[in-house]
Amino acid sequence: MATSPENGIVGDEIDILRRQHIFGKHKIAMPQVEGFVKLTAREFEDKNCMLLCRAATIYLIFSIFGSNATAYVESLTIYTGLLLACLISGACNWWKERQFLALRKEINSQTISVYRGSYGTVK
């Protein structure tokens, strides 16, 4: 590809355009940010969350067959608290991934000087 071991590549505009056409532009691939719904759903896979869901379900079943008519409210409160905690955690993870992606974009936009060709031109 017209590369010299002593001088490197030619480095003129035509050579750079030809190399970009063959090899593509040098660019760091950016990861995709997962959606808010997916990150929130992943929070429900936690062992403690699953344990609380099971406990609230068992408590709901016992409250339905119990003598107190309003006992199911306590299990609904557990479900509501669990949902709220998972939503907050999912939102925090989503925001954190967006900040990480913005930082990666900033790193990707940096310009670097390179010496090209036998004359040592800086690009």
Short description:
The protein has 123 residues and is mainly alpha-helical. Helices cover 61% and strands 3% of the residues. A two-stranded antiparallel sheet has the order 1-2.
Structural overview:
The protein has 123 residues and is mostly helical. The protein has one domain. Helix content is 61%, strand content 3%. The protein contains four helices and two strands. The chain has helices at 13-23, 36-43, 47-65, 72-108, and strands at residues 115-116, 121-122. It has a two-stranded antiparallel sheet. Strand 1 (115-116) and strand 2 (121-122) form a beta hairpin. Helix 3 packs antiparallel against helix 4 (72-108). The longest helix is centred in the C-terminal third of the chain and has 37 residues, at 72-108. The chain is rod-shaped and about 90 Å long. It starts with 12 loop residues before the first helix and ends with a strand.
Summarize the biggest pleated sheet: 2 strands, antiparallel
Q: Tell me the count of domains.
A: 1
Residues in helices, as a percent range: 55-70%
Overall pLDDT score: 83
Unreliable spans: none
Shape: rod-shaped
Provide a count of the helices.
4
What distinguishing features does this structure have?
mainly alpha, 61% helix, two-stranded antiparallel ribbon, 2 strands
